[in-house]
Amino acid sequence: MRLNEKNISKKIHTLIQLIDDPDETVFSEVKNQLLILGPVALPYLEQVWSDTMNRWLMQRLEEIIDDIKFNELTKQLAQWKYHQQEDLLHAVWLINHFQYPEITKEYLQKKIDPIKKDIWIEFAEDLTALEEVMIINNILYEVHQFAPNIANYYSVQNNYLHYVLENKKGNNITLGILYLLIAQELHIPVFAINIPEYLILTYINNNLNLYDAKSESLQSAILFYINPFSKGTLLQKEDIKDFLHQMNIPEKDTFYTPCSNADIIEKLLLSIANSYAQVGNQTMYSKYKNISKKLKEA
Fold first, then answer.
1. Dihedral over Cα of 32, 33, 38, 41: its sign
2. CATH 1.25.10 fits 3-83, yes or no
3. Which of 64, 118, 145, 234 is in the most buried spot, having the most CB atoms within 10 Å?
4. Which residues face 233 on adjacent strands?
5. pTM for this structure?
6. Per-residue pLDDT in tens (0 to 9) along the chain, 298 residues
7. Where do the domains of the chain lie?
């Protein structure tokens, strides 16, 4: 062990000994120092948590451990946003892995691959956009039996892709993400649009350069919209307008054009936050909402 590692270890042990100090000012400073150290402190904290029988100490340890992990997730998502945002599955996996560490990215991909293969087998050359979407809808919703989890819509588990893939049920956001992941891997020009709290998809004229196109060009290139929560029902712009009106959401031009993968991940984080709010867990609600806000600002 190098000298700096010994010093870090010694510092962590010293800080841990002060965690149960009754003085809140002392605890606050100790917590801040451990948060600065970050993930390197986790093995030490988790070991003490495992060994102690002191409930007061356990609660404080849990608070610090959770905050370090949430900080790390926030950092990883910010790095993803700037360095590999085109890989939507990676960010979905980061969020999934945070709550379920045993779930690997490879596991998610292996669960998606058979669905993608079944769709690919049905594809042929010169299919129209409508024919492509009809095949995706049939395989995803009829053959593989994916459906909205209406009975337990606000269950936190609905927000985790592995749960959706295993149980064939999800909420609007995760079913939309699954649909989008499959379309992206099949090189189908399907994208998400950024309606608040909902994930509606759109099929874009394949000849359009999304990065150079202006809003007017994007809107003219949209062939139709897709509602992944309703078995891939096709929608037109007027349907989106009616929906916004029914939900009392003020209309914006950006609600009709493709959004970024970072926008989609922000939606997923807010969906998790709202699920916790439904069960009265204000702490987790605030933490996930805060991550979403930081990702937006990153």
1. negative
2. yes
3. 64
4. 227
5. 0.90
6. 444 777 888 899 999 999 988 889 999 999 999 999 999 999 999 999 999 888 989 999 999 999 999 999 999 999 999 999 999 999 999 999 999 999 999 999 999 999 999 999 999 989 999 999 999 999 999 999 999 999 999 999 999 999 999 999 999 999 999 999 999 999 999 999 989 889 999 999 865 545 444 555 667 789 999 999 999 999 999 999 998 999 898 888 888 888 999 999 999 999 999 999 999 999 999 999 999 999 999 8
7. 3-83, 88-297
